[in-house]
Amino acid sequence: MGENRFSPDSPLVHALKEVLREHPDGLKVPEARRLLLRAGYPGVLERDIEEMARLPDFRRLPGGLVALQGADEPEEEAPEEAEEPAEKGPPSTLRDLPDLRAYVLFDVETNGLDLETADFFQLSAIKVVEGRAVAAFDRYARVPPETFTQAQRLRLHFNELGLDAKIARAGTQAEAVAAFRDFAGSLPLVAHNGTFDLAFLRKHAPDLANPLVDTLELFCLAFPAERSHRLDRLAQRFGLTEGGPRWGEVLALDSALGISAGLGVPPRDLFHSAIFDCLVLHFLMAEALAVLRRLGPGLKACLRALSPTLGDLLGAPEEMSLPSENLAELIALRAWRDQVPSERSAPEPGLRLDEETVGRAYEKVLGYHAWKPRRSQQEMLHHVVRAFAHGKTAMIEAPTGTGKTLAYLLPALVLARARGAQVVISTSTKGLQDQLVRDLEERIRPALPFAFRFAVLKGQANYLCLTKLWDLYLETFVPEAGAEVPFEERLALLYLLRYAEERPDGDLESVSFWLQERLPALRTLKARVASERGTCSSNCQHYPFCFHARAKASSDAADLVLVNHALLLTRQWAEGRLGFLVLDEAHHLEDAATSALTLEASRGTLEGLLARLLHPDGTRGALVRARRWTREGQAVQQAMGAVRRLRKQVAQFGGYLRDFLVRQGVRFHPRYGAAWRMRTAPRRTHAIAWEPAERALQEMVGELATLTKALERIAADLAEHHPHVDRAMAVVRELEAVREQVAGTPEAPGQAELLQAIPQVRHDPTVWVHWIELAVLGQGKGEGIPPRGSRGRSNKPLSG
What is the pTM of this model? Predict the structure, then answer.
């Protein structure tokens, strides 16, 4: 690029500045030229404005806009500007609980999930007074019979209950809702996933105003460790299904209310119907309240602080003070050293690894479950045994339905117990890990004549960090003066406290998906309490209870270790640890390697880090808490100013990338956005088109450097002057963790380094691939700027 024809002192440059001061959001070049012509500069051309815009006093904005440099940046001490509202789910029903001395449990069965196209065909309810079920209600409503799938008909026992005839004879949904309103009166309504069910009632009675309590929210707090909170799973878990230990209680209530007798069907045929769900829900509601009433005083104090009406329901004393000393005041902590063996078991006496021994184990498993042998499974079993016995490598391809999991698990177990060796089994996904756990626990362990140990090991970020949980609790329930934490965020934190108390492995993968949808804040908090290398060490006060440390110790002492391909490829394994290795679904290994070795700088990551330092509302975050303790007030102000400017710069950068990709002829998919591979550095091959993005990029990198230095000063000051103050050191940990992710460590690059390195494309393209990826902000946005999903990536593909 040649020298700029316009100096910063040029009259035309000053005139352009005056025009842009009146338009701080920027102008397109033709608009700026039009205003300059009106201001008395008749000879100005669009290319003149383009050239002037390259001077340091100007900046290019997405969409081809020109603006004054810094015109849209807030002062360091200015209040945070209002931002795009955070994603929200339906409001929690636990905020202001109604009087539940009397209420109505209800449930609906629908022919679909879409409120617009589907409708309910059964509406059932049970009235409860002082904990006793006193009356039942059951009505049907007409829907077209062809709208039911065969799977629905089987699940809902259409033939056994004669539902086709009942639905055909039924009245309308409006008539059913009217009868239900007469039954319920003004009593509170209680339902499982009640916001869904209530929407179908209000479709026909918009003025239905009874308060609602959603038991799914309550059950997530009461039973946080359950894999599923579906009614049928919980009914089975608590013995409320046929043959279960509490089936007699269900039959007694059914008889007292005359439900199955009135319908002329046996009680077992009511399973999955709306009226049976109401029966089950009555017992589960009582169970959940009993569990929550037995909570310790610390959690009860939190529940009362969250919702006084919830505190009243659970019998939490009004004068309880919130814990503020340590996590043990809140939840029961499990020390893992006493529960995890220090070494692997000695070999099983008399057990040998050969086809005969493994064949007998196979027959025992089949006999225990009354399964039939499969020829292909037996063939695979023998191949695996021979490979293990002779220390050979084998690649085995088996068709669907072979039963390959059993075919490699049995030889692996016999090998481990016969030789005292350890076998590592790697799956393509963490979900398959969970499936292996169920197979080992429920299918194999009960059938084998010898004992064995297995452990699941996942990446560190999958485990909940108790220290970060405690820090987050202090920030959420014992906040700094003036900070107001939203109800849904405090409820999400309470769920995580209960999860840490009840879930023995602390695996964040099992956090309730439904509750994350209902309370989007839970996703953010889940990420914040994830264990990370920078804040995890054996010196931590919570190390004796640490979930990640427990998982590592358990894997050291296990006969079988279950991992996923990503961890297999990225963990530094001790010499000889992978002597016996099974790769399940090995055809996914290349994809797993590509994913595991990808480095990414993204808007989502940066915004998450900035929010940890300073919440968008300006009242919370590590920097707000640091002000109470540090003497580096100037550094805090510098950091806050950098966060505010970065928040705006990061949001705009995706727009610059989009403009650049448009100029390269890249087309945007309305749902999937766009991706563009960088074969060479765009600053060299597309200099003019890349210049606005490059300038914005360097501004971000400069601000990140300013932020990093300020964080170092604040953390050093706090560590020096308040080393024994827990809350001050909690801030230090948070600041250092964020700083490491921004600036990087010797082991891993940070976001600032990646932002610069990815567009430079300095690496061999056969080893590293670089690309820009833009995701669409929301479905149906067309080609609107999609900066929220913008990212740059480098990944290292497998090479031959």
Answer: 0.81
